[in-house]
Amino acid sequence: MFDNIKKAIGDLSIVIAALLLAIIFFIIFNYSSNRVIWQSCQPATINYNSNYNYCFSVIEGGFKLTLYPYQLSRIYYLFIGLKETTPTYGHSKTYSFTYEADKMDEYINKSQVIWANNGLTFVESSGHRLFFPKELFLGVR
User: Fold this and answer.
1) Residues 17, 78 within the same domain
2) Which of 70, 113, 121, 138 has the fewest Cβ atoms nearer than 10 Å?
3) Gap between the Cα atoms of 51 and 138, Å rounded
4) What's the pLDDT tens digit per position in 78-121?
5) Is there a single domain that holds both residue 115 and residue 125?
6) Degrees (nearest 5) of the Cα angle 129, 34, 91?
7) Are 85 and 105 in a shared domain?
8) What is the spatial distance between Cα 60 and Cα 79, in angstroms, rounded to a whole number?
9) Dmax of the chain from CA atoms?
10) Are residues 46 and 25 in the same domain?
């Protein structure tokens, strides 16, 4: 009888340990630092006929595990929000950088934003471009 109880307690402890380990991994994978890596703000020469001025930011997000080629990588967000506040409300887009190295911050800091009256274009230092029409972010949508 005591052997059955010991076995049940042993099995239960394994299940609890596996559950705690799964919770820890879930927290680690979904941890988002929300750190602003790079930012460019709307120049005075660009007028969107809006009551707001905008900033474009690259924000560090959580992690994602890809099935092919089986790697853990960081998620990044391209974010357009109000100039007067920290990036909390605005238009965002999940973005995958082409650079695969340890010095991602340095790579991102070489990017640029081309501000135009019809919107803005994010230019990655590799040459990749992504255009945001002003209608997507006016009024911080």
Assistant:
1) no
2) 70
3) 9
4) 999 988 777 778 899 999 887 666 788 999 999 999 999 999 99
5) yes
6) 50
7) yes
8) 11
9) 83
10) no
Reference 56, options 75, 72, 36; nearest CA is 36
Domain count, the chain: 2
Range of the domain at 12: 1-30
Buried b (16+ CB within 10 A) or exposed e, 95-121: bebeeeeeebeebbeebebebeeebbe
Cβ–Cβ < 8 Å for 113, 106: no
* Cα 92 from Cα 69, distance rounded (Å): 26
**pTM of the predicted structure, to 2 decimals:** 0.77
